[in-house]
Specification:
alpha/beta; six-stranded mixed β-sheet; two-stranded antiparallel sheet; 7 helices; 8 strands
Length: about 210
């Protein structure tokens, strides 16, 4: 067996600690279908952070329990299109991704020293207006956590139902161009990448193991 092949096999067998930060606003439902935990290997652990506007909450800490992980993803799904605290979750069309990344890093650090490969996957479809001013601190915390950042952009307009003639609706969200660009810079600096279309968790995990 060649040294290169030995290295590839070692990387493929290295366990992963993956924190998934998912925006739980309306028209993000399509993202859940792409987050099936089945491709996770036996020793992999994963957790879920939910982000809704300015509210960021740990839905599930890192765990190897697949049932607990599926339950957390279902809980994230129940927040899509639901009024929370009397506020329509469909607006405003912004989300605090920066705090979500920080909370994910804190959960990874909480595990202490580990031989698991650390990664954060952020799934979003809205802009984070405060992201630019927090670029330096996020880059620093990702580096200190030794975590790669992976980013999946969801076009929320793609799942909007057709509006019947004469019906007045709220303005639709704009595609988060600037936020995607800023997150791509963070992801690249950390050794990760951005996905703009045609992805699923299996592909993300393959990229993390490389």
């Amino acid at each position: 067996m060649t040294p290169t092949l030995c290295l590839l096999l070692t990387l493929a067998q290295t366990p992963i600690d993956l924190m998934v930060g998912i925006e739980t606003s309306r028209n993000m439902e399509q993202a859940l279908g792409l987050l099936n935990p089945k491709p996770l290997q036996k020793e992999d652990r994963a957790g879920v952070v939910g982000m809704l506007g300015e509210r960021v909450r740990m839905l599930q800490g890192l765990t190897a329990d697949r049932d607990a992980l599926r339950s957390a993803l279902r809980e994230a799904g129940t927040r899509f299109g639901v009024a929370l605290g009397g506020t329509d979750v469909s607006g405003p069309w912004t989300v605090d991704l920066a705090t979500g990344i920080e909370k994910a890093c804190a959960e990874l650090d909480r595990q202490g020293v580990s031989d698991h490969r650390r990664a954060i996957l952020v799934v979003f479809g809205s802009d984070d207006p405060g992201l630019r001013t927090r670029q330096a601190s996020l880059r620093s915390v990702l580096k200190s956590t030794n975590a790669r950042l992976y980013v999946a952009v969801i076009d929320r307009n793609a799942s909007q139902p057709v509006t019947p003639p004469g019906v007045i609706v709220r303005p639709r969200p704009l595609y988060p161009v600037l936020t995607a660009q800023l997150l791509e810079e963070l992801a690249t600096a950390s050794g990760g990448r951005i996905y703009r279309r045609g992805w699923d968790l299996r592909e993300v995990l393959q990229d993390i193991r490389q």
